[in-house]
Amino acid sequence: MGEQSKAIIDADSQVYMRKRNGTIKRWSKLLLRSKTGTVGLLIVFFITLVAVFAPILAPHDPNAINPGGLHVPPSWMEGGSAEHLLGTDNLGRDILSRIIYGSQVSLLVGIAAVLLSGIIGVCIGLIAGFYGGLLDNILMRFVDSFLAIPTILFSLVFLAVFGPSIITLIIVLGLTNWTSYARLVRGEVLSIKERDFVRAARSIGVKNNKIIIRHLLPNVISTFIVISTLSVASTIILESSLSFLGLGIQPPTVSWGTVLSDGRDYLATSWWLATFPGIAITITVLGIIFLGDWLRDVLDPRTK
Amino acid sequence: MMHYIVRRMLQIIPVLLIISFIVFTLVFIAGDPVALMLPEDAALEEIEQLRESLGLNEPFYIQYGNYVFRMIQGDFGESFRYGQDALSVVLERLPATFELAIAAIVIAIMIAIPFGIWSATKQNSSIDLIATGAAVVGKAMPNFWLGIMLILLFSVTLGVLPVSGRGSIAHLILPAITLGTGIAAEMTRLIRSSMLEILNQDYIRTAKSKGIKSVHVIYKHAFRNALIPFVTITALQTSTLIGGALITETVFAWPGIGQLLIQAVNTRDMAIVQACVMIIAAIVILMNLLADIIYRILDPRIKLN
């Protein structure tokens, strides 16, 4: 007993995990087979590069005011200049540079908030699913209450109370989004904990914490990855909506939502101000959704 | 049936209590409203007096108890911006939001039913691919941006529809399209999948094998049954719909509860914020309950327990 049986349990648990997650070779084969998956990955890769190298890529300082060149149209239009590819706004700021810098905020807020909600949600899901009973009941009632009302509603209450800033925004979006993880992870745990390797681990007296960390956590990672990817997409939309409403990112930090909201007042004269940031959001979110859908097809055992 | 409805109604209470608890805790953490109510040079005694009269010196749980007690009586406090009872300010705005929501649902249904049936009966045809593609792009596009693009096209460039405000049918068109397309994608997907499921049932195959025209089979046998989940789907969209209305109303300066809430958040008018949140939560939860009940009435296969 002891060491040997633990090793067998570990091996069994790993086989189960590998069966579900597959190998890198299988992944890349599956990726190439899916057109949307490949497109999604390329878009996400491209946006990430833009965000990381924004200071090098942006032709201008995104906040540089230029009184000599207000409302310059995109370069291919009459009166446009090659210096400002996508034109300038009411303060003469370069739209392309603002969009390039805006990608940083979108990705930062999107990923940070999703990681925060993922950690909260996975922990609660693991605990609720593993221990069950009254604790599970209370936690799930809490999840139901959260799911009952629109996500944006809680975000608004948070923002009304704490005031807008990038940190509040990440915390707010992180705290309002954990419920979907909790629910799905709990469901997974309920089925995994009936597997032989978990029962065996219990029977030889492995501690609960250790079972959760060694056997359950690795097995819900795939669920975590799928929901996370798709959540980044919805979080980016939510962030841009809140910034658009003036409740999210505050100047001088540039966000696609604030660029859009600046442009809203000049629709009659300068259509490009509100148009391009929206296209940037749509393409980014589309890429993430493609990637997420593909990941779900590959990782989700229910769709296999 | 009555027994079931009563039981479900009772289940709403803990959910609303949890929501009110979260909201109250947040407002409690935010700190003292007294600072906002009195001039900066107010005497300490004066502050203390106001705190005492508002019950702010009580411990947390007593304050929460009082809060719930007042809330049950419909007292959410006074809006400092409007100078009246917060609940009546919120209720005044509700008809505008309902008007917009109903128009949006009508538009969503007009898009979702034909496209859902179409793409289910002609799977993998070009229409199916276009409908599915449009749904994905629609999901990726922020709703408020679609609204702005519609204003750009129909109000600014073509000049055929008003930019914002409420009044005539013309004012309603753009916000309703913006809000409606937001839920149409999800509805189309759900109609498509419920149609597909039904088209594979034995009674459809029997009907087809008897030589009944396929149009007849689709509408009389399949679609009618697909309507059952559809009613539920529509009611369950309330949450998405109200979430979307918050932003759509602001984009189009539509004087509903969404615009009110966003303004209240901006001005930190907490009485209005709390009243809005509780009213919206109650509406969403009631609609979900209604969806369940209708579903059970329409589908005799589901037994009440």
TrEMBL record, chain B:
Residues forming the ABC transmembrane type-1 domain are 94-291
Tree of life domain: Bacteria
Cellular component terms (Gene Ontology): plasma membrane
Q: Name one GO biological process term.
A: transmembrane transport
Which Pfam families does this entry report, sorted A to Z? BPD_transp_1, BPD_transp_1_N
What's the chief localization of this chain? membrane
Keywords assigned: Cell membrane, Membrane, Transmembrane, Transmembrane helix, Transport
* Localization in the cell: Cell membrane
Q: Does the keyword Cell membrane apply?
A: yes
User: Membrane topology per the record?
Assistant: Multi-pass membrane protein
Give TM segment ranges. Answer: 12-31, 100-121, 142-163, 169-185, 226-252, 272-295
Q: Which family does it belong to?
A: Belongs to the binding-protein-dependent transport system permease family.
Q: What is this protein called?
A: ABC transporter permease
- Organism this protein belongs to: Oceanobacillus profundus
